[in-house]
Structures are given as structure tokens and as C-alpha cells.
Amino acid sequence: MTQESSMPTRGQLERLLSQRLQALYREQLGHQPSKVTCQLFDEKLAIIVEDSITPPEQILASNGQTELAEKVRSDLDKAMQPLLKALIEEVLGVGVLDILSDATLETARTGIIAVLDITPEVRNPEAVPKIKK
């Protein structure tokens, strides 16, 4: 087995990161997002977290306490950043220079962009030898 064939594809890394991020939200916030989508673009990683708003934030927002709900979300995002950074670095095997994130209470989505120090090494799916049937 060559070194190239033992490397994961970009899609495999994106799926693994999505699963691990969903578990991180569940473990840390007691709330599991319905979907986490990750997309690698060279040394950038875009993450969309669907249904990321926790029940306490939803209660605050629905009772007219939107500013407090937004403050809670902002503080949670800041508290989660070191955990997100460590998880991304572990899964992708590269350093994270910066994490930018924002959430929208109305749509219950969080968008995260991670700026990586280098492009993660991945196997090119076209390089996989075709098995003849």
C-alpha cells in the first residue's frame, strides 16, 4: 500500500470532521445540531451548523429577549473556539490560524470559517485504481 492510498480523500476528511463536530456540540452543549456540513477550500475550511441554537437560547429569543439570546450565543461561540480549533487540527493534521464564526437566531444556523496554516494532505479520488469487474 502506497503512502498516497493510505491518505483519506477530501470527502472522507469532511465527513469525519462533520461527525466529530456534531458530537462536540452534543457533548459540550447538550444539544445536537441536525446537520453539520464541512467544505475544504485549500487552506480554508467552511462549516455550516444547522439547528445550532440551544433550547435556552430559543426560549430567550421567543420571549422577546433577543439581545440576551444573541449575547449567550456569542459567548458560547467564543467558549467553543478553542475546542473547535483543537478538533479541526486533530482531524485535518494542520494548524488553525484563525476561526471566524457567527450565528443567526432566526434560522438557527452557525457559520464558521477556519483559516488553516497549510492545505491538508488528501488523496486524490481519481488516483484510486479502478477495480475491474
TrEMBL record:
Residues 9-117 form the Na+-translocating membrane potential-generating system MpsC domain. It comes from the Bacteria. It comes from uncultured Coleofasciculus sp. This is Na+-translocating membrane potential-generating system MpsC domain-containing protein.
